[in-house]
């Protein structure tokens, strides 16, 4: 038989006119003319625009009229494209564009027919023409036109299986199926509607639909790229499940994910939701430029936002103005500017339990402090005597320090702000080589030393005190060099010491070399490099560092060769340089005129009290004494340890809008290249779309809300289309991610618009939309191919039959687990590790990631919870086309390969499912036939037909003859049925 | 019988192959319904191909061209001194500062073969086939970090998400083999920075993804029948599955079911063909010695020998990753060690293909993701010394067979080995050349995704490297 192309598709697209503007003319104009005569003000020639009728019909700079509707011969455009004069012809020879004869004919025909410009269907808001319409109404209308008839309703088993798989991503058990089949009397729709409502209310609904959303969100549990380290962002995944189960209106659902942090009184949940755009990858490879990869993350965010909500191929405009759609190169960066003003912190979720733990922790510290004196060996008298001696001793060593505040602070990148306590707090972006230039002026003479105190701060990565947020020790810093100057002349620092000099050089480096050379590197005698002196050696790779973490507090003291006078100013230059960005985040500077300054480790207040014999600070001095006295080492240990730990709550990745004091500018990047930033662009949306509201700041939140403005033509259409695709395997608009000029027009434009309008009317409720779809007769049709629809409508665009397509990877695995009776109902939490061959993650992956197979119920959780490692994803999922989380995916491929057969046949997970099912079936059913039927129904829902039962019996007998029996025998049966086409196909 | 329609959905709708031809990945195998009419048969190329298969030996981590191919005595002369800033320009580095001192080559170089190509002393075996290979000393990339650079070489783009070379090739040409996947990936080292993105099919249908051949457990995941299942039961099981699927096919008339039946047959064949491929007992002693291959131990040598066997069996595109060339410290030891593991087998592969008459139709490509700096890398805090950092400006690759002219050395860098001064070859040129040898025009091999017509070679102009073509 000849394979026929679906010829009616061509018919669908042809409108009344022989030449269709959007289909035929616009691509020609776009490709040949718009570069100089389009929407881009930049580089426009002859003041002529051919994208707007007003301009095209009017006189150009030359005085000629470009397009005279109806009169191609009078139109300058036609004269020019036909001209043989090198100076006249369009496009000009230097553009190297050559217009084909076909294109010339198209333009001529179009002008002859009146040169009508037409708006693109997707760029004007959807209108529902017939309020009383329904899905079936539109579908039938179209079928009638093609002379096709809808298929009858699918049988009850098919229907119950289909609606279970679609709504909750799991098949019904035989009992669940029977309950429906038996309750369905005649033509009554009641039982079905009851079932639909039940499934929509089921917790598993959110788990099924979250997976589809996570494809767009490019969710994964690792950072991607070489190191591909684990990250914790599963609270975001769980937020999606819960939001979908709660039927959170899709506008809220979206606004929270794009800008939840900016909502008034944002809740913890709102902030968790912003994880959506934190699912970008993070490159922690040795020596990357962090700002380059932040730029790529922003590129990703713009593209994903375009795909997920707007159906726009924004990604095309990273490098140049869109070839077809009305999006300028600049528009792309303006949209980026809307999204680009956030910091990207790790957010510790402050649950009530955590808050209670924190309170208890603070109380515990207070109690430990209060109890300290009681623990002094020998009691009060002994303590007082030792304390007096300590004061006497320490007073001699102590120096008085005076906090100095910079009069000017300049940095290469981070943003510094002075705090009331004299500390300076850093934030914002960081680079591999950051310099802080701090200037001081204070009426202090005879300054002998300067001290840098560093301390943790909750706003910093891993609590600081540094700003390192990738690759290196999180929250650490590395001060490579310190330079002092006065009036432009260097001030010599003679020596320096720090309070953590005894610490190991715990340089958490990314050692990019292979294992062998790593070992060699470790063997190489490493010079002690972590000390304050190393900041004076003009060697950038050595310096002073403090690793990050809660409760860190250290100081370094730098001694001037000669005392200096700060009256006329003093400049300090701090250089932070390493193969990862490592500037300081929270620090304070103080000076002394003492002739015996040293890094004592005492808090400033205590040291000053000691130096001045300030008896009012006796209590603070006593505490310091008790915490440091050698005889208190054991007694003070719990307190000191407690100060370094704080219950912080489950971390997740979130967005945080920047303070107005430190906005981030966004540039246009020439050809989309990070190394070619050009002018700064304002935050804005493309001009062809409704503008942002005038009375609101042009920011992320306003943009998120704008997506849902009634006049926005795209969001509702794009969303309903994606939902439609989930049920029918094909969208009404085929390209889920592209509603632009180049997309295939909708198969049912009125239906798409009607659904979009209804969706908004119903409060953006996904559950209502889903119900509307599954209640339709269109959805309930049988999926068998009929001779007629098969031949004319291969792709089932017209829906004269139900949709039959292979199930998603997750549904295939989860169905097998449910059929086997082992699927765990446990929801949420960190990713789990179901069985898979060790070589998936141990071979060829950087760092030999060990897949520690989960035990107990975590072995059989829903696939949504399987740990997703981007560079070595779960093999079964990849084999069945699940995404890796490296890029946003609007629509999965549906492949059909021998590797899938091997997986279902031989993979350990499926073997375990078969074995578990065998046990249940043996226990549940007494004889061969009932066991065969039970197995069959667990996997396929419907009972086997007589001939199928015979085939199964024959197999069974044959295996018995080969001495297979008991569980092994029945596992073989279960395994075969789990492999059936029907077991992995949307029926 | 109601003849099922076995058209593949995406071939009629998504495959905007420039030439309008329809190719089907090998893994779909021939259909149960008439192999002759299956669109899977090896598809026609744009023009007469020179090569039928490609073996890409990917030296992940980036070998030092200055220790292997690009001899720069001037570096010895200036050892310890920095390069002038005018040479360095604005180049960013991963670890070193641009003003780091230069480091002289660690090995002696000598001329070899009739062509007199200069090679380092650690490539004694390659020296014996130097008249069969074309050395390109003027390769350049845009990426200076491993993962993006590896993904770039493999997919033409520095971020994950695009189809890899092997995917484009199998998409464009279809399969030769009925029993094996047509795009195979082997890893012989410590880990691939770019990960699975390096052999992903990107936005092409996922059947064009590379299939990993693994060193431990099953060579292809799940290709062995599980313990406890006898061969007879396995056969009966597949028969039962296919009988029941045939019945379903008659009822529903879904072409996907027909493809699935074919795939179970192919899976069954794979269960035999994969172990047969891996079984090196039939290789004679001389061959094993030629490669330096211990059949029982996974190694680069074994992967090379397997690659030859794959080529013999119609595999279209083979990636052999050899990781561990990232010599930030002790570049001398690193290169010496890696050459010990790879030099003999790389040369053996050329010789073996040649003696079996396969070299003419097999394109062999050798290279890493970028080069290494003329400057030394040393860091007290990282405990590194005498290493070299990443250098995207210049690196060396070689190609052989498949219509490549042997005994050619092309391109040159300046006397310090920093910049290219002659015949710059960009990554896209390498891609264009590989496609060209396979009979494909890189301008015409395209795929529409997310609003753009994508090509392996991207949008920048690029060229086939004519200088090395026979």
Structural class by SSE content of chain B: alpha/beta
Structural class of chain A: alpha+beta
What summary fits the major beta sheet of chain A? 7 strands, antiparallel
Strand content of chain B: 15-25%
Q: What is the distance, rounded to the nearest whole angstrom, between the alpha carbons of the first and last residues of chain A? A: 26 Å
What name is given to the CATH topology of the largest domain in chain B?
Alkaline Phosphatase, subunit A
Give a short summary of the structure.
The complex is a heterodimer of chains A (987) and B (470). In chain A, 39% of the residues lie in helices and 10% in strands.
How would you describe what is shown here?
- The complex is a heterodimer of chains A (987) and B (470).
- Among the domains of chain A are: 17-119, no CATH class; 399-509 and 530-601, Galactose-binding domain-like (Jelly Rolls, Sandwich); 908-986.
- Helix content of chain A is 39%, strand content 10%.
- Chain A contains 36 helices and 22 strands.
- In chain A, strands 3, 5, 6, 8, 12, 14 and 16 form a 7-stranded antiparallel beta sheet that branches.
- Chain B is globular and about 80 Å long.
- With 470 residues, chain B is of the alpha/beta class.
- In chain B, a hairpin with a 4-residue loop joins strand 2 and strand 3 (117-120).
- In chain B, helix 10 runs parallel beside helix 11.
- Chain B is 30% helix and 18% strand.
- In chain B, the strands form 5 sheets. In chain B, strands 1, 4, 5, 6, 7, 8, 11, 12 and 15 form a 9-stranded mixed beta sheet that branches.
- Chain B folds into 2 domains: 46-216 and 298-375 and 387-468, Alkaline Phosphatase, subunit A, CATH 3.40.720.10; 224-283.
- At the A-B interface, helix 15, helix 19, strand 21, helix 30 and helix 31 of A face helix 1, helix 5, helix 7, helix 8 and helix 11 of B.
């Amino acid at each position: 038989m000849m394979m026929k192309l679906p010829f009616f598709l061509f018919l669908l697209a042809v409108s009344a006119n022989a030449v269709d503007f959007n289909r035929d003319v616009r691509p020609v104009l776009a490709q040949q003319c718009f570069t100089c005569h389009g929407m881009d003000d930049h580089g426009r020639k002859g003041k002529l625009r051919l994208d707007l009728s007003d301009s095209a019909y009017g006189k150009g700079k030359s005085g000629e009229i470009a397009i005279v509707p109806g009169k191609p011969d009078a139109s300058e455009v036609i004269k020019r494209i036909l001209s043989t004069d090198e100076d006249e012809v369009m496009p000009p020879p230097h553009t190297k564009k050559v217009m084909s004869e076909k294109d010339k004919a198209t333009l001529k025909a179009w002008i002859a027919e009146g040169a009508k410009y037409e708006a693109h269907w997707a760029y004007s808001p959807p209108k529902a023409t017939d309020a009383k319409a329904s899905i079936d109404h539109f579908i039938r209308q179209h079928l009638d036109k093609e002379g096709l008839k809808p298929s009858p309703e699918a049988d009850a088993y098919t229907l119950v299986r289909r609606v279970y798989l679609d709504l909750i991503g799991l098949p019904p058990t035989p009992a669940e199926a029977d309950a429906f089949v038996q309750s369905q009397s005649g033509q009554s729709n009641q039982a079905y509607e009851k079932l639909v409502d039940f499934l929509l209310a089921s917790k598993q609904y959110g788990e099924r639909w979250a997976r589809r959303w996570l494809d767009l969100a490019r969710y994964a549990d690792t950072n991607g790229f070489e190191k591909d380290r684990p990250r914790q962002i599963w609270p975001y995944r769980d937020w999606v499940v819960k939001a979908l189960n709660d039927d959170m209106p899709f506008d809220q659902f979206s606004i929270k994910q794009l800008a939840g942090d900016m909502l008034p009184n944002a809740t913890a949940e709102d902030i968790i939701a912003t994880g959506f755009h934190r699912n970008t990858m993070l490159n922690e490879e040795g020596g990357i430029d962090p700002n380059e990869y932040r730029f790529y993350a922003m590129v990703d965010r713009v593209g994903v936002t375009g795909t997920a909500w707007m159906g726009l191929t924004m990604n095309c405009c990273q490098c140049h103005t869109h070839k077809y759609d009305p999006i300028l190169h600049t528009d792309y960066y303006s949209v980026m500017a809307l999204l680009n003003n956030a910091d990207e912190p790790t957010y510790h979720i402050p649950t009530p339990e955590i808050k209670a733990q924190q309170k208890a922790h603070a109380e515990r510290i207070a109690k430990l402090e209060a109890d300290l004196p009681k623990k002094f060996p020998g009691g009060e008298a002994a303590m007082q005597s030792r304390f007096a001696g300590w004061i006497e001793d320490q007073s001699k060593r102590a120096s008085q320090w005076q906090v100095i505040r910079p009069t000017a602070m300049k940095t290469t990148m981070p943003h510094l702000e002075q705090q009331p306590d004299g500390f300076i707090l850093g934030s914002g972006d960081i680079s591999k080589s950051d310099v802080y230039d701090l200037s001081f002026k204070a009426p202090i003479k005879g300054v002998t030393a300067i001290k840098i105190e560093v301390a943790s701060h909750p706003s910093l990565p891993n609590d600081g005190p540094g700003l390192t947020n990738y690759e290196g020790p999180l929250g650490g810093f590395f001060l490579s060099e310190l330079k002092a100057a006065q009036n432009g002349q260097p001030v010599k620092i003679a020596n320096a010491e720090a309070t953590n000099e005894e610490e190991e050089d715990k340089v958490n480096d990314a050692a990019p070399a292979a294992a062998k050379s790593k070992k060699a590197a470790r063997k190489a005698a490493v010079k002690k490099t972590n000390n304050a002196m190393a900041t004076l050696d003009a060697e950038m790779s050595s310096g002073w560092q403090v690793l990050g973490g809660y409760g860190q507090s250290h100081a370094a003291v730098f001694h001037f060769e000669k005392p200096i006078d700060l009256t006329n100013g003093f400049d300090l230059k701090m250089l932070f340089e390493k193969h990862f960005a490592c500037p300081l985040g929270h620090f304070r500077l103080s000076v002394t005129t003492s002739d015996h300054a040293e890094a004592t480790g005492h808090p400033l207040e205590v040291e000053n009290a000691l130096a001045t014999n300030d008896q009012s600070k006796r209590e603070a001095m006593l505490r310091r004494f008790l915490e440091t006295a050698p005889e208190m080492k054991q007694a003070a240990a719990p307190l000191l340890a407690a100060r370094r730990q704080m219950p912080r709550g489950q971390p997740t990745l979130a967005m945080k809008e920047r303070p107005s004091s430190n906005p981030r500018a966004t540039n246009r990047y020439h050809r989309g290249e990070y190394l070619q930033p050009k002018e700064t662009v304002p935050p804005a949306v493309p001009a062809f779309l409704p503008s942002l509201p005038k009375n609101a700041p042009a920011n992320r939140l306003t943009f998120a809300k704008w997506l849902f403005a009634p006049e926005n033509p795209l969001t509702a259409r794009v969303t309903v289309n994606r939902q439609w695709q989930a049920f029918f395997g094909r969208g009404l608009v085929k390209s889920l991610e592209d509603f632009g000029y180049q997309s295939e027009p909708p198969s049912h434009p009125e239906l798409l618009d009607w659904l979009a309008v209804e969706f908004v009317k119903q409060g953006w409720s996904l559950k209502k939309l889903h119900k509307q779809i599954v209640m339709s007769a269109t959805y309930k049709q049988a999926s068998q191919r009929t001779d007629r629809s098969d031949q004319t409508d291969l792709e089932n665009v017209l829906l004269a039959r139900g949709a039959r397509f292979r199930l998603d990877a997750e549904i295939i695995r989860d169905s097998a687990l449910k059929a086997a009776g082992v699927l765990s109902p446990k929801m949420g939490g960190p990713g789990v590790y179901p069985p898979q061959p060790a070589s998936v993650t141990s071979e060829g992956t950087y760092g030999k990631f060990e897949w520690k197979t989960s035990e107990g119920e975590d072995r059989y959780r829903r696939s949504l919870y399987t740990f997703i490692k981007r560079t070595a994803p779960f093999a079964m999922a990849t084999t069945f086309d699940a995404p890796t989380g490296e890029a946003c995916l609007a629509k999965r491929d549906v492949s059909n390969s021998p590797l899938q057969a091997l997986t279902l046949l031989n993979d350990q997970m499926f073997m375990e499912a078969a074995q578990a099912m065998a046990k249940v079936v043996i226990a549940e059913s007494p004889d061969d036939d009932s066991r065969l039927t039970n197995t069959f129904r667990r996997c396929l829902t419907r009972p086997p037909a007589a001939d199928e039962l015979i085939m199964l019996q024959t197999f069974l007998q044959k295996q018995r003859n080969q001495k297979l029996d008991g569980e092994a025998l029945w596992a073989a049966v279960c395994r075969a049925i789990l492999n059936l086409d029907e077991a992995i196909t949307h029926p | 019988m109601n003849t099922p329609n076995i058209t593949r959905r995406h071939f009629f709708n998504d495959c905007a192959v420039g030439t309008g031809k329809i190719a089907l990945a090998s893994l779909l195998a021939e259909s149960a319904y008439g192999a002759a009419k299956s669109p899977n048969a090896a598809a026609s190329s744009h023009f007469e191909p020179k090569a039928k298969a490609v073996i890409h030996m990917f030296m992940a981590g980036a070998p030092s061209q200055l220790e292997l191919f690009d001899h720069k005595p001037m570096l010895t002369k200036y050892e310890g001194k920095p390069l002038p800033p005018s040479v360095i320009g604005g180049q960013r580095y991963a670890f070193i500062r641009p003003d780091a001192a230069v480091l002289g080559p660690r090995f002696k170089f000598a001329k070899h073969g009739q062509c007199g190509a200069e090679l380092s002393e650690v490539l004694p075996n390659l020296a014996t086939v130097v008249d069969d290979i074309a050395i390109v000393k003027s390769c350049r990339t845009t990426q200076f970090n491993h993962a993006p650079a590896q993904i770039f070489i493999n997919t033409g783009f520095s971020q994950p998400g695009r189809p890899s070379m092997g995917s484009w090739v199998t998409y464009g040409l279809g399969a030769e083999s009925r029993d094996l996947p047509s795009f195979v990936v082997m890893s012989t080292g410590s880990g691939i920075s770019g990960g699975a993105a390096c052999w992903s099919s990107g936005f092409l249908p996922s059947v064009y993804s590379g299939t990993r051949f693994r060193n431990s457990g099953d060579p292809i995941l799940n290709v062995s029948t599980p313990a406890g299942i006898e061969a007879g039961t396995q056969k009966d099981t597949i028969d039962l599955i296919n009988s029941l699927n045939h019945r379903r096919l008659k009822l529903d008339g879904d072409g996907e079911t027909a493809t699935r039946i074919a795939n179970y047959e192919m899976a069954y064949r794979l269960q035999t063909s994969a172990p047969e491929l891996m079984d090196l007992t039939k290789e004679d002693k001389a061959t094993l010695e030629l490669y330096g291959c211990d059949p029982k131990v996974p190694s680069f040598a074994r992967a090379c020998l397997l690659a030859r066997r794959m080529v013999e069996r119609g595999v279209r595109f083979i990636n052999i990753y050899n990781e561990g060339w990232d010599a930030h410290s002790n570049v001398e030891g690193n290169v010496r060690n890696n050459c010990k593991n790879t030099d003999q087998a790389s040369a053996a592969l050329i010789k073996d293909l040649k003696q079996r008459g396969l070299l003419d139709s097999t394109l062999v490509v050798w290279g890493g993701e970028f080069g290494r700096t003329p400057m030394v890398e040393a860091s007290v805090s990282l405990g590194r010394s005498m290493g070299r950092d990443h250098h995207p400006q210049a690196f060396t690759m070689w190609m052989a067979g498949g219509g490549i002219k042997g005994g050619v050395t092309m391109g040159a860098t300046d006397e310090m080995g920093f910049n290219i001064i002659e015949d710059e070859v960009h990554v896209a040129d390498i891609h264009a050349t590989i496609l060209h040898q396979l009979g494909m025009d890189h301008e015409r091999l395209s795929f529409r995704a997310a609003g753009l017509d994508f090509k392996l070679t991207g949008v920048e102009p690029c060229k086939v490297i004519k200088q090395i073509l026979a």
